[in-house]
Amino acid sequence: MAEQLAGLADDRALLGRTSTAERVSDILRSRIAEGFFPPGTRLSEDSIGGALGVSRNTLREAFRLLTHERLLVHELNRGVFVRVLTVEDVEDIYRTRGLVECAVVRGLGEPPYALDGLRAAVTEGQVASLENDWKVVGTANIHFHRELVALAGSARTDELMRSVFAELRLAFHLVDDPRRLHEPYLTRNRQILQALEAGDRIGAERLLEGYLRDSLARVVEVYRRRVGEAAAGGDGA
Questions:
Q1: Using alpha carbons only, what angle is made at residue 105 by residues 210 and 117, rounded to the nearest 5 degrees?
Q2: Quick check: helix, strand or coil at residue 1?
Q3: Is 18 exposed, middle or buried (0-12, 13-18, 19+ CB in 10 A)?
Q4: What's the gap between Cα 80 and its chain centre?
Q5: Which residues have CB under 8 Å from 88's CB, separation 6+?
Q6: Could you tell me which residues come within 8 angstroms of residue 76 by beta carbon, excluding any fewer than 6 positions away?
Q7: Which of 8, 40, 121, 139 has the fewest CB atoms inside 10 Å of its own CB, making it the most exposed?
Q8: For residues 162 and 70, is the Cβ–Cβ distance under 8 A?
Q9: What is the tens place of the pLDDT at every residue in 182-217?
């Protein structure tokens, strides 16, 4: 927790003099999306409020906003926790991704497209893989798809998908072999990028559909196994 709080202290400058609950929630959402707060983590009002230099009321409002986004959950007499997703949550996240991301690619106009953000995310993932940092590879993967959504040029779509991608990070935390999950998508992200560079949005959409289908199957497989293991452990207690 100390490392996470140190990171939040660095974000304190982002709040400025006109700090608001929305800005605090933006920071915490980003930290969740970057993997700093794993599912099940209890968020201490005193520690986080002190790190960010905000009042208890402001922080509670930020928690309320993120609870509405399904990133946090309030447990009576226990506090606020980062949410642990269910299999149904994961399936709904991917359903939403398919509807939005594929529609963005399908709706692209005539090339060339503004692909610098996608190129940077592909490079970020490749560099992290060489360093065997699979958590960062997962973050780069999320960056890639966030930049893909940004091609729509829609602030509303960007806002919608920010919380979806933050939830996706919560799903990634339960995967016991992050390399097995993320490594194949280094190549697949590059293939999507190459299709868009060639102006082939139909091919890019086809690649994206297969990507999302396979990724969902892998994550759900892990979730079902972990839920089964937890149930078996409970039976043996």
A1: 100
A2: coil
A3: exposed
A4: 19
A5: none
A6: none
A7: 40
A8: no
A9: 999 999 999 999 999 999 999 999 999 999 999 999
| Cβ neighbours, 10 Å, residue 153 | 9
Residue type at position 86 = T
What percentage of the chain reaches a pLDDT higher than 90?
A: 63
pLDDT tens digit sequence for 86-97: 899 999 999 999
Mention every residue, 6+ apart, whose C-beta is less than 8 A from residue 51: 5, 6, 8, 9, 12
Q: How much of the chain is helix, strand and coil, in % rounded to 5? A: 75, 5, 20
Q: Which residues, at least 6 apart from 127, have a Cβ–Cβ distance to it below 8 Å?
A: none
What is d(CA 14, CA 138) in angstroms, rounded to the nearest whole number?
25
**Cβ within 8 Å of residue 61, ≥6 positions away:** 21, 24
Does the bond joining 178 to the residue before it have cis omega, within 30 degrees of 0? no
Residue 13 contacts residue 27 (beta carbons within 8 Å):
no
- In terms of Cβ atoms closer than 10 Å to its own Cβ (0-12, 13-18, 19+), residue 46 is exposed
Asked if pLDDT for residue 16 goes beyond 60, the answer is: no
